[in-house]
Amino acid sequence: MNETFMKEKPVLPLILSMTLPMVLSMLVNSLYNIVDSFFVAQISEEAMTALSLVYPVQNFINAVGIGFGVGINAVIAIHLGAGDHEKADQAATQGLVLAVIHGVVMTVCCITIMPVFLRMFTSSEAVIELGVRYSVVAFAFTLIVTVSMAFEKLFQAVGNMKTTMISLMCGCITNIVLDPVLIFGYGPFPEMGIEGAALATGIGQALTLTIYLVVYLARPIRVHIRRQYILPSKKMVIKLYSIGIPATLNLALPSLLISALNAILAAYSEVYILVLGIYYKLQTFVYLPANGIVQGMRPLIGYNYGAGEHQRVSQIFKIVLCMSGIIMVLGTVICLLIPGQLMGLFTHTEATIQAGETALRIIGAGFIVSAVSVTSSGALEGLGKGAPSLLISLCRYVVVIIPAAFLLSRFFGAVGVWNAFWITEAITAIISICVYYKAIAQSQLSPSTVK
To answer: What sections of the protein cross the membrane (predicted)?
Structure first.
């Protein structure tokens, strides 16, 4: 592969070649989320509620893995664009070491806190027991998740999106196939219930990492893990965390948001907690493909930023914004047309389905405008500007929506919480545009700050 293709290939074909594999793999990943929840819902409504309550902690683990991976991705891409291969290797090596440390720490901490965490949101012993049983198995694979994410971002940084696509798809398809087998005990497999869902997920994640390792060893890429860089360099560690921490917080903030909204909704009924949990499963069909586009965009923006190709950075941003907008339009249309059918995948209780129909129609109104904040935040991460990206996410997940949800719920009940979503997206879109262009203007697209 031509090492300079990221700054020489025409912009639109380049973006399509980088983003389409990721969109496809994210769509499969979305299907996994739906199928996983569908089979858990067949166990009982309590099992689905438990899964909804565990989800914020799962999301936090993924946020740390992906967010720090974004830091690895951005630093590697920027140094490759500037032609500094030694720094790129150093970033990859030290990023992997730190990912291992993150995985070990989170495994211990997350398994330990789960009983107390679950009791904050429910008094149902059945739900708590199911949640603990699921999380102990699922969180045992945390180290595999963080290391896998590091390799995923390493491959993406050099433009090797096909390997990422194949690895993610194989892991997700394995998970989908194993879900009913391990949950209900088909063939020679024992019936494991909710633990089976967790084990299926873990096996899929392990397969994804295995494929990354095999490809890395069999087909060397431009960036290498090297022994001489294992000992941490203060400057490189700071550089990785300066992007990785804001990116992690960007992805972890939804966990804080879901927990806060669960607390607000619990005052009305556990039905609304279940509805919120189902919504967050369904919305992956919209936001994961959009995230796939953003994942393809980040290394392109980082590479061209490092190479001083300012005009191409602007073109990439505008085209990706349009592509994300198209996906969001489709998401809005689906939520308006068939909300009842979507809710019916996870529950047969008529009251829950009706509450979910209302929620999906209201929340879906904010999908389209959310393309602005999603794209702006991802572009800033690709440019190595973690703080402005974090500012956008803080507005989207904390500063605006939590107070809005709290106040509106006092007047309109649970419906007020659903309306807080589209109101927040509209306000955050305006803020995002201002933050993005201000960050660009201040830096004047100078890559010198990352060298």
So the answer is: 12-32, 60-83, 95-118, 130-151, 163-186, 198-219, 240-265, 271-290, 319-339, 359-380, 387-408, 420-437
Give the CA distances from residue 242 to residues 224, 330, 402, 440, in Å, rounded to whole numbers and listed in that order.
22, 35, 26, 17
DSSP 8-class letter at 222: S
Lowest mean pLDDT among 87-96, 154-163, 371-380, 425-434: 154-163
Question: Do the domain assignments include residue 174?
Answer: yes
Spatial separation of the C-alpha atoms in residues 162 and 168, rounded to whole Å: 10
Cβ 391 vs Cβ 435: under 8 Å: yes
Average pLDDT over residues 264-293: 87
Task: Put residue 16 in one of left, alpha, beta given phi > 0 → left and psi -120 to 50 → alpha.
Answer: alpha
Question: pLDDT, tens digit, for every residue of 24-40?
Answer: 777 776 677 777 778 88
Taking the C-alpha atoms of residue 192 and residue 437, their distance in angstroms, rounded to an integer, is 52
The single residue listed with the structure tokens 């879906």 is 364
- Asked if residue 164 and residue 44 are part of one domain, the reply reads yes
Contact 121, 53 (CB under 8 A): yes
User: Global pTM?
Assistant: 0.74
Per-residue CA distances from 55 to 229, 256, 265 (Å)? 36, 11, 16
Whether residues 214 and 174 share a domain: the answer is: yes
Q: Is residue 103 part of a domain?
A: yes
